[in-house]
Request: fold
Amino acid sequence: MTFFKKQGLFHDFFQKTMKCYIFVHLITYQFCMGADATEGRWFRIHRNSIAHRAVLNHNAAKLQTLIDAGNPSIVSINRAGEKPIHLSARIGTKDCLEKLLNTLSEEEVFVQTTLDSDQKGRPSREGNTAAHIAAASNNEDCLALFLERYPQQTLTTKNAHGNTVLHIAAREGNVRYLVLIMQKAGELEDFDVIGFINEQNNIGLGALNMACREGKPRIVAALLAKGANPELLSNNGTSPLELTQRRLRKIRGKDEYTAANYRAIIRLLKRRLRAHAAEKVAADHHEEEDDVDDHDEGGEVMVGDEEIDQEDEDAELVVPEAKKPAVGVKPAQPGRRTTELHTAAKDGLGNKVERLLSTADGRAMINIQDEQGRTPLHWAAEGHKQVCTQLLIGARANVNARDNANKTPLQLARAGNRADHPRKYAETIQALTEAGAH
Reply:
């Protein structure tokens, strides 16, 4: 009998406790929740201000009213460490973000938050700005707004881990964001694009290292095409290739799809490292030629065909798998218009193409036709030199130029041998097609 009495007392206590909990829960829910019931769960946790609720409800008119009235809630912080500008970047309310950008100072726009960029609403020490959150939350319009209003600050500002927006885009594997960021970086005057691409975070990871770690082959290909350093070491002395190989060993036999991505990255890195080694050999040959020029009394030294062939053979002994490096261009015969850019594109020397395109003289060569009527892009496309193709397209080469045989670069690329390098074939075709070639 005593047992059942105790059970009854426990039952009464449980009922009263639940009633109190439900009462407090409903009061909190009604106080914190806005019009959208699906977002109410988030409000209850994070205690948003009236400006936060306006952003969550996509109510730009209400937010503008608060701004006009000077309401302090537009810079208030919820329990997750987010201000309304962080929240608008995360959920993609472009109209609200635009109004906040028109109102807030630059310092207030790039204030850091403690909300993790994984969109799970868990506090962390990542310390992202609103621009970082936009890059991590698949909100392209919001990121474009930051790049338009504050391009330099958006590109160079780091979060608490030392990551830029390029690191975030590489980590998320978003190629569109990467293209958008790199396009804006290229438009800025006196901006070190190569230094920006190879910027390292607090643990020494560049954007390329991060893309390798996360298994993003398309990001790796795009970064290498833009000049990312494949030999960049992290703080613990790990290169991108070593990092990728370690990841592959951990997941081998567990996830074949991810393993295939890591293997693709390894192929890209090895190919780029071989090309990098070939370019170093070519640079050494150029230095030797310069020394000969300095000691020659007649001034100019002509390099004969036999000497060039011998140098190419030496280069092949040093780098067996690399293409023959271009050690110089022969004097043009009358009527010929072959330029140094033609030769570099034909040989697939990405660094040399990039170096030439960084100068006014090199850019002037971009659409020059040789004796066959071909531009440098024709040669790069025909040989499926994917890196050179992307560099030339990025420098606004004419993708629909026609040679003496009435062929465009895309037609030459499709006519090439697909079996030798199927991946390079596909990437070259894709790059030309996306640029509007036909």
Observations:
- The two ends are 91 Å apart (CA to CA).
